[in-house]
Amino acid sequence: MDEKYTVAIIGCGRLGQHYAEVYQTLPNTELVAIAEYNPKRRQAVGERFGIRALYQDAQDLFRHVVPDIAVVVLPGKYIKEAVIAAAQAGVKGVSTDKPIEARLSDVDAMVEECEARGVVFAGGNLQRAIGEVQEAAGWLHAGEYGSLRGASVHGWGGEISGGGCQHIAVLRLFTQAEITQVIAWGTPPEALARDDDEGLIINGQFLLSNGLVCSVFGQPTPSRGVDVWTDDALVRWDWGPPEIFQGRDAQGARIKADRPYTPLEYPRFSYMGTSVLSFLDVLENGGELYISGHDLRQSLEAAIAAKYSALWGNVPLDLPLADRSLALYPRAYRWLGGDHSGRSQTYEEALEGTLFPRSS
């Protein structure tokens, strides 16, 4: 491209600053504005990235600037308002991050607003966007390992709408299927009774649209991610590049395959970088996002269905859920942000990028 996409970051906490690093590094994007409610952090981030167009919130920003891309990196409670404001302002694309709000009807409103206005609605920093995960999924989809015979999820507990949304996103990618029914058991009882998902451990089954039945284990087994298998191969995502096992040794045990992955273009940014590159490619050329707002919604819906299946006596629940008012809140840090949950970032930390050092 001869021209650069203009970018505004809405929410400049720790993760928002990491997004700013990525967009300021890429050759076809220009960071032009930020919105941040904390005045000291707003000043520090502006100084750090050389941005003078500083605003308190999304509404204030869009009164002055309409960027090509709006990157919403707010605590979950505030995502809906900012995403819809971006779509109504006329951006070409908007992205947000996990977990996407808490109530299904709120996520529906975001997805529908973007669709109605032709705005690309991207997800964010999920391991589904790891280059190796996408490449392994491509091998599966091409039939290089044969037809899928089964799938399982491991370690789906603790915060099933927060970190747990990673599992659902990878499961759907590997199987090319949607979850059509959930039946679940939840422990401990006090976690199941809460409005949020902190400490909730889920065991159960997912019925997939391709006919597979996926076992769900709340505690980590020898794996803690997603397994899918064929007659001859096992592909295992365990928080990082997938491991591939193909064939059996003399004792019948699986043999780990040594199949190299394509090197990343921006390895220091890992799946943050590949997620953003996918977003930019779809804006330029169309196609399918590595992570979309729809993907984030599907992860939330599976978590909500699992919680209520367990709460209501292990009843099977069909997806999509008919009751869109159902909700599941993430833990306070994800829902309210660090400033309101005891994990605030100081001016000095924001200025220096303590957790995300600036690249030389």
Helix content range: 25-40%
**CATH architecture type of the largest domain:** 2-Layer Sandwich
Q: Name the poorly predicted regions.
A: 356-360
Query: In what range is the share of β-strand residues?
Result: 15-25%
Total strand segments: 16
- What is the CATH fold-level name of the largest domain? Dihydrodipicolinate Reductase, domain 2
Distance linking N and C termini:
25 Å
Q: H/E series, N to C?
A: EHEHEHEHEHEHEEHEHEEEEEEHHEHH
What Rg, in angstroms, do the CA atoms define? Answer: 21 Å
Structural class: alpha/beta
List the domain count as a whole number.
Answer: 2
Query: Could you state the oligomeric state of the chains shown?
Result: single chain
**What does the average pLDDT come to?**
94
Number of helices: 12
The dominant shape is: globular
In CATH terms, the superfamily of the largest domain is: Dihydrodipicolinate Reductase, domain 2
Characterise the protein shown here.
This protein is α/β, with parallel strands linked by helices. The protein folds into 2 domains: 5-127 and 268-292 and 346-352, NAD(P)-binding Rossmann-like Domain (Rossmann fold, 3-Layer(aba) Sandwich), CATH 3.40.50; 128-261 and 297-318, Dihydrodipicolinate Reductase, domain 2 (2-Layer Sandwich). The protein is 35% helix and 21% strand. The chain contains 12 helices and 16 strands. The protein has helices at residues 14-25, 39-49, 58-64, 79-89, 104-117, 131-141, 165-175, 189-192, 270-285, 293-311, 332-336, 347-352; strands spanning 5-10, 29-35, 54-55, 69-72, 93-95, 120-122, 150-154, 157-158, 179-187, 200-208, 213-217, 226-229, 233-237, 243-248, 254-256, 317-318. The strands form 2 sheets. Strands 7, 8, 9, 10, 11, 12, 13, 14, 15 and 16 form a 10-stranded mixed beta sheet that branches. β1 (5-10), α1 (14-25) and β2 form a beta-alpha-beta unit. α3 packs parallel to α4. The radius of gyration is 21 Å and the shape is globular. It starts with a strand and ends in an 8-residue tail after the last helix. The model is unreliable at 356-360 (pLDDT under 50).
